[in-house]
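hey can u check if this looks right to u? its 499 residues, i copy pasted from the old doc so theres a chance i mangled smth
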Amino acid sequence: MYERRGDTLQRLRRAVPSSFLVLAALVGCAARVSRAPLPEADPARGDEGGTGVPWQYEIHYGVPRDGDLEVEAAFAKTSSDVFRIDEDSVPFVGSLLYAAAGGWQSAPRNERGWEVPCRQAGCRVRYRFALREAADQLDAVDTAIASGDVVVAPPPTWLVRPSFQTGRFRFRVRVRPPSRFATGIRRSPDGAADTYEAPIDAFEGASFAVFGPFLSRMLERGSARVDIAIAPYALALTDDDVVAWTGTAVDAISKYFGRFAVPHTLVIVHAGQQRVPTRGETLGDGGPAVLLGAAGGMVRGAIRDDWVMTHELLHVTLPSLSREHAWLGEGIASYVEPVARARIGQITSEKFWHDLVDGMPQGLPMPGDQGLERTHTWGRTYWGGALFCLLADVAIREQTANARSLDDALRAIVATGADVENVWDIEHFLDVADDATGTRVLHDLYRELASSPGQTDLPALWNRLGVRVKGGRIEFDDAAPLAFARRAVTLPAQAKGSL
């Protein structure tokens, strides 16, 4: 996921074992590499080429050397002559040139960035970026990583830009076959080939992009499309396995919400490190993408036991919250993931409750805890957030005699059309959720647990739900006062009339 800092979206590294999959909105392959001129500037409109897009890039991958990007860009007039790129990327930028009378001139660089005269009438720049070299040396999912000949890196890693402007940025990518290109960023609304576009204020958190000879697959569920980019190097899974893995996660989420509501998603799958569990990360600005690094040696038989794909795709389906509320976003994904998987029979009810009984104590406050908003430990963020969701689910079911649940709260949020690309205020999130259940459960729990540790008696909760552990095995007590709620949590929606 990512966090919002000020007015800029910054990537937030996940700390949970998960698979790295990118939900693919757009996968494209160019038949040839050709240089097309950027449009002429129209100063009267304050943009390049009269398109209303002040940042425009023409990018060639694999020219003249495999692993390199050749970039030419045109910018409307700026408020500053300083151009920059992510700090880690600076060593991989070749000489930055700008168009001047008589040809191209080298832009001087200082501690602030490159000095390019762009304030009067806009400017054009060109440079080469050593993308493969950056991936080999940086080797980080939030900057650049390589898997065989496939490189994954979001645009802030490889695109030089001026100071912030309003409007949109647009880039066209041409690649030399057999390489391909894919990104979670949406295609340009004018339908231009190999061209992608998003608001400039989404740039710093822009979605993943992948270059190289990856395998391209696609699955559809109703009106939703998931494009899948598979880096085959050292991956034990076949492309059919990866499609099945993705499809199972999408089906589980569709069952929970009634549909998979995100129109386009990009999923990128590569071989993770040996001896490291599957890991995943989601970026949403400009369009959603999930990057999954499959556990070393992961084979088709292990897909059934994987939870990371479902966890990451759940993030795609819901609006983002600011960093102080990350516990709620992670808690929802951590709690709903096993619920959704249980409802399609991927895990049993016994395993679902066993895992909650075993894991929930990690979400309880420790000495010095200041509440979920102010205590940013791994346990409080993931398990604490999941505990909040469990308490909410049970309380809603109890107050409404099982007529409503957390399902209804989250379905109402999904029904607004918001997804990971949208950033919501916490009060709006809670308002929409509580309105759907006709209760104040989420607001009340938020006031109780967000800014103070609160009191949660887990043994008493398990007793009321009729969940007991004996000899390491789960036993259910159907005479318990909240047994009806326990049964309903993992029961498919169509079967809930017979509780």
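Residues 215-317 form a domain with the Neutral Protease; domain 2 fold (CATH 1.10.390.10).
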